[in-house]
Amino acid sequence: MTATSVLDDAPLSGFHKRLALYSSGGPFLDGYVLSIVGIALVQLGPQMHLSDTAQGLIGASALIGIFCGAFLGGYLTDKFGRQVLYTIDLVAIIGCSVAQFWAGDPVWLFVLRLLIGMAVGADYPIATSLLAEFTPRRYRGPLLGGLMVMWFVGAATAYVVGEALLTVGDNGWRWMLASPALPAAIIVLLRLGTPESPRWLAKKGRVDEANAVMRKVFGDRASISDLPEEERENAGLVLLWRSGYLGRMLFVSAFWTCSIVPLFAVYAFGPRILGALHLNGQLANIGSALITVFFVVGCVLAMVVINRMGRRALIIHSFLWSGLALLLLGLVPSAPAAVIITLFAAYAVLIGGAQNLQWIYPNELFPTEVRGTAVGLASSLSRIGAAIGTYLVPLALTSWGIGTTMLTAAAITLLGAVISMRWAPETRGLALHESAALTDPATTGA
Asked: Which is the most buried residue in 69, 145, 251, 407, by most CB within 10 A?
């Protein structure tokens, strides 16, 4: 084993699998939190006499929180470490989720969901940076992509739990919004004892601690001398403004936005959107859960083919064909229920590639010093569009109708295909320091 391959070419161990599982807690909670509100609003809206504007704000509040929390979490994890913040953010989710049970007005509910979104957003750069910096190159794409699978598992779980809690009476929505506290508590317990990233420790001059982690994870003979040298730059936010990294940041933020605006709108108002497509009542909730299963299938398929197909080809095809499925939904909004579900299922499966690459590209395209900051900033910027889109969904359904609303979603998705054709790089098979280096010829994009 060469000096530079101890980490990047290591076999997949039990430690890597456990770390991937623990890191998936944030995406699971994200999908759960953003989806459960869609069902809760079915009961909550009439009880509190919420207008379309109020429903849009409550639906988008967690996204606004993610905008603030992701960048802050990224900056803090680059400054203070990945492991320190790895559980703190989930403790905040537990407290705010429980507090939602006693929310007595929409303003208080908006504030609590804003805080939950901040904690969820902070977990993105923390968990993904830690996983990327420990994972061998061969498994980095599938394991990071697997985090997105857990987003949809969380969303599917939310629909099942929400449907069950609708039967408990008028307070069902309170139990729904408090329910994320339980999985968050389980994830906190699982994460205890996770080691710090040796790459980050080495960058901070904490050599003895870095060597201890290397020996613990990779064997008694491993040390930081086995870590590859990264391209040295001016550390900090200034690095992100250099021409090459600024281009990468714009690409990641743009494609991430195009991939989540339609998706988050569907998850925040899934039952209402399907209702507008003539799938009403329990059928709308069941349809939402079924579509979520297809989202999981799409992400799993993307995990399987990503190393064979490559990052660039996968993201282009994902955007293109899923956009066409949404286009057909917009053109035939009065089609039979079977056709509507089939087209939604096609969108869900085909968008899996773009969804997986939300976690892979930003972690591969930036160096250790600013990896967390870059992931957090890209996530924050993408949430601006997602929050606006989610807020506008109930207004669009009322003013434009379902057909035009779905055509707008198709246009955003197809824009993602155009952006990817122009700027998506290929990072398949590269070590982390190679994919993050501006001078490496294998990264041909931004």
From this structure: 69
Plot region of 321 (φ>0 → left; ψ -120 to 50 → alpha; else → beta) = alpha
Higher pLDDT, 190 or 286: 190
Determine the Cα–Cα distance for residues 353 and 123; give it in Å rounded to an integer.
Answer: 22
Q: Are 175 and 168 in contact (CB under 8 A)?
A: yes
Helix (H) or strand (E) holding 345: helix 337-350
CA distance 99 to 181: 10
- Exposure string over 285-314, b if 16+ CB within 10 A, otherwise e: bbbbbbbbbbbbbbbbebbeebbeebbbbb
Give the model's confidence band at 229: pLDDT under 50 very low, under 70 low, under 90 confident, else very high: low
Distance spanning both ends of the chain, measured CA to CA: 32
Instruction: State CA 235 to chain mean position distance.
Output: 26
- The yes-or-no verdict on residue 442 having pLDDT over 60 is no
Q: Which 3 state secondary structure label does DSSP give 110?
A: helix
Q: What is the pLDDT of residue 2?
A: 41
Tell which CATH architecture fits domain 14-194+229-436. Up-down Bundle (1.20)
pLDDT of 308 over the 80 cut:
yes
Spell out a b/e string for 191-211, using b for 16 or more CB atoms within 10 Å of the CB, else e: beebbbbbbbbbbbebeebbb
Residue 334's SS3 state is coil
Q: Which residue would you say has higher pLDDT here, 383 or 258? A: 258
For 374, half-sphere exposure in the C-beta direction (CA atoms, 13 angstrom radius) is 32
Q: Residue 81 in 3-state DSSP?
A: coil
CB 57 within 8 A of CB 180: no
- Alpha-carbon gap, residue 55 to 390, rounded angstroms: 10
87-102 pLDDT, tens digit per residue, is: 778 888 999 999 999 9
One-letter amino acid identity for 91?
A: V
Residues of the chain with CATH 1.20.1250.20: 14-194+229-436
DSSP 48-106: HT--HHHHHHHHHHHHHHHHHHHHHHHHHHHHH-TTTTTTHHHHHHHHHHHHHTT--SH
Of residues 30 and 100, which shows the higher confidence score?
A: 100
- pLDDT tens for each residue of 330-379: 898 777 777 877 888 899 899 999 999 988 998 999 887 778 888 888 88
Q: What is the Cα–Cα distance from 158 to 288, expressed in whole angstroms?
A: 10
CB atoms within 10 A of CB 319: 28
